[in-house]
Specification:
Layout (H helix, E strand, L loop, with lengths): L11 H9 L3 H24 L2 H18 L9 H26 L4 H11 L7 H11 L3 H12 L4 H8 L3 H22 L1
Length: 188
């Protein structure tokens, strides 16, 4: 498989074949090379933090790796990996909401402040407000919007990742899109 940057990456089947043939180090390296950056940005859009996304990415690869012997190939490896990453991100957000409630903080405000304080953010004001609007979406709409808009996944792939029907995903994306559009129209 040829990646967007022109490099050749292994397919899911090749990675699994390497793993099952005992070349586990090569299989793991190929897994990280194939999905590391994509999963990082998926997690980063949930956390608005490089450190949290990086920590979650490591947790994801540990879970993927330890669960790989049980992978039955009923889904594709990349959608399975995205499902694990999505679950890790949602669990992280639930935990942070609970901690924020204990500390009487507004997690949404904290997450928005992360966008404003992020030194690696190089976007303009419109992009910053887009990220804030996405951040204010309910978790399911945020997930669907991110997977469709940023990761450019098909509704079928998102259905495989989330266990949701294509029709429901299209509705979630439509609602998310309209909420974001409405918020940005108020600002600009």
């Amino acid at each position: 498989m040829i990646a967007a940057d022109g490099t050749t990456r292994m397919t899911d089947k090749e990675i699994i074949a390497l793993y099952r043939s005992g070349e586990k180090d090569r299989a793991f390296a190929s897994l990280v090379e194939s999905y590391g950056e994509r999963l990082y940005w998926h997690l980063r859009r949930f956390t608005n933090s490089h450190e949290d996304a990086d920590d979650l990415l490591q947790e994801c690869f540990m879970k993927i790796w330890t669960s790989l012997p049980d992978f039955r190939e009923e889904s594709r490896l990349y959608t399975w990996a995205y499902r694990i990453a999505t679950n890790e991100a949602l669990n992280h957000l639930r935990k942070n909401r609970w901690l924020a409630a204990l500390q009487r903080e507004n997690l949404d405000a904290v997450m928005e402040q992360r966008i404003d304080d992020d030194p690696s953010f190089d976007g303009n004001e419109l992009q910053r407000e887009l990220m804030k609007a996405i951040n204010r979406l309910p978790a399911k709409q945020k997930l669907v919007f991110n997977l469709r808009y940023f990761d450019e996944l098909s509704y079928e792939d998102i259905a495989e990742i989330t266990g949701t029907s294509v029709g429901a995903l299209k509705a979630s994306y439509h609602f998310a899109y309209n909420k974001i559009k409405e918020e940005l129209e108020k600002k600009f």
